[in-house]
Amino acid sequence: MTEAAGPDADDACAWAERLGWAFGLVAEDPAARGAALAHLTEAQRKVTEALNQSNKMWWLTRHLGTDEQYREPAFRQARQRHRQVQRRSLPDGVWNAPLGANLATWPGLPYALLFLEWEARYPLEWTQYAKEWGTKESLIRQMARAPHQGVTMAKLTDLVELVVNRPYRCKDREYVRVARAVDSADLRGRLGRAAHSDSPWARCHAGYVLWLLDRPDLPNTRRVWQTWVAGEAASLL
User: Fold this and answer.
1) pTM greater than 0.85 (yes/no)
2) Do 19 and 90 touch, CB atoms closer than 8 A?
3) CA nearest 139: which of 103, 182, 180, 168?
């Protein structure tokens, strides 16, 4: 498929053609995940190769001066090739999410959610193949700012539940923003069960999220989190 410029380049079909394989990353079948990871490895190899070529052309054309350099055909082609292969890989392919309400109608939304679900369900594989804490944080914050309904709201509710039921990982506290954005009786019921589970991680994290849901004006800062954790630890002594 030739990737054209313009608004049609980012429709749902184009996204599926570029990144449809990535849903295998969250498959229950290890063989399906293995195939998707192999695809990702090859996609990332192509990104690195294209970046090296772009950097090489930048070096060879630097004597032209900035304006002429960026108009030089070989350098422009190398840069374009790098952008194209980035869109077929992760995390690069979900870096350009729109801000605000536009996120809800963005054709790339399922793939941004997939990236977060992959980290939530298979954190070790995500860390090995696509660790990018800044992308995780950025996507979570964007999800929290946009209005959501239906399937997307259900997916975000599932993500909050997954995250609070596991040992804490970098940027997990950001999911408080999502919980506040999709607050519902269903979510609170799931958090309540986690807060009364046998897992100390789940009790602490789910209890914290529930506590903040009841206090919408309280900021979700590191200090507030640390105060909560210290209080939970003290209650166990």
Assistant:
1) yes
2) yes
3) 103
Would you state the structure tokens that stand for residue 162, as one six-digit string?
């997954």
CB contact at 8 A, 47 and 85: yes
Which residue carries 């192509």 as its tokens? 46
Whose structure tokens read 């295998």? 24
Encode the chain (237 residues) as per-residue pLDDT tens digits: 334 444 345 789 999 999 999 999 999 999 999 999 999 999 999 999 999 999 999 999 988 888 888 889 999 999 999 999 999 999 999 998 887 668 888 999 999 999 999 999 999 999 999 999 999 999 999 999 888 889 999 999 999 999 999 999 999 999 999 999 999 999 999 999 999 999 999 999 999 999 999 999 999 999 999 888 887 655 543
* Cα dihedral across residues 54, 57, 59, 62: positive or negative: negative
